[in-house]
Amino acid sequence: MIGILIMLVSMVFVLSVVVTVHELGHFWAARACGVAIDRFSIGFGPALFSWRDKSGVEWRIASIPLGGYVRFAGDENAASVPDQNDLEAMKREIAQREGAEAVKKYFHFKPVWQRAIIAAAGPMANFVLAILVFAVMLVVIGDLKSQVIVDRVEAGSAAAAAGFKPADVIVRMDGRKVESYRDVQSYVGLRAKLPIAFTVQRAQQSVELTAVPTLVEQKDEIAGRMKVGRLGVALSGRAYLEKSSPWMAVPKATMQVWDMLKTIGFYLGRLVTGQMPADQISGIIGIGHTAGAVTKASVENAPNVKTLVVRAVASQMLLIASLSVSIGFMNLLPIPVLDGGHLLLYAYEAVFRRPLRADFQAAGFRAGLALILGFMLFAAWNDLNRYDVFKFIGGLFT
């Protein structure tokens, strides 16, 4: 029960921060463009309490603490982009009710480039959040560094076939500098059945090796059962934390986020083309389990309360940054309902000088919603299988 409670609290906190910052991105961009805003809600469902600021925006704390939303004035169309007839009717109604000048403050009558900025601001806020978190961590805690030395090569493994030998120092992978054993694990893990060019230092000589990691299933306390690429080596090397200066932390953190985006895109591409099994897709259950497991692992055996708090805060911040990058990326996909879908509609409007027809928008919205819901159900099924929930339930009746 304690583990489940830790998981739920951690998941709610992490998701709430990431989604709220995403919505704040839309909110700040809309305000900068002079858009009238009705409400900003932290959470969903009935309001626990609310208040209005000087500009008339209702700020609400809702009863379901899983994210939030921003609602623009007049934003009643499900696809958020009415067609030309809807726009004309809406314009007349606003002009009669509030006067002709009031039309300019409504989202749908802003220039298409401003609407595109507002749509993109949510994912951008997620990326900025991740950069700031990583930058603070680099300054306060530091980045993991180590020399990566091959201790042992498994017989019959991909590493043995490539010619790896004990005492080899891995320097580069596909031209990328290796700075810790974590770099090797993450890079190899995503490249099962793909050749990787390694540069190793062997007895004062630089040796080029090419290995093709095998796809294996392994069980992890945090990630559950996962299929990953495996090289077949045991690595060692003295690890240490290298702190960054404040003026170098932001550029380093930006590159870290950019590398994460490239990794997500690469992995998604392999999934779509069938090079990686689709059962690796994870969803809300996986997020919750990961959040709980990371939090629990970070605070176990803490020698004192101060250390426990520092570890807990650091683990939550890293989870927030990682999830923020993923949510920002996913929201930019050109799928109706998501921000990327809105950007696609705005691109159409910019090219053809008119919004897409309302019936086409509605059809796209329904298809996008069905796709997202189907994806969520599929991911949930994967999570239940990955964490052996069905095996556990089956064991209760045997």
Automatic annotation (TrEMBL):
Bilayer topology: Multi-pass membrane protein
Keyword Oxidoreductase: no
Alphabetically ordered keywords of this record: Hydrolase, Membrane, Metalloprotease, Protease, Transmembrane, Transmembrane helix, Zinc
Localization: Membrane
The PDZ domain, residue ranges: 135-204
Membrane-spanning ranges: 116-142, 308-327, 363-381
A molecular function (GO) term: metallopeptidase activity
Stored Pfam families: PDZ_6, Peptidase_M50
Cofactor: Zn(2+)
UniProt similarity note: Belongs to the peptidase M50B family.
Protein name (record): RIP metalloprotease
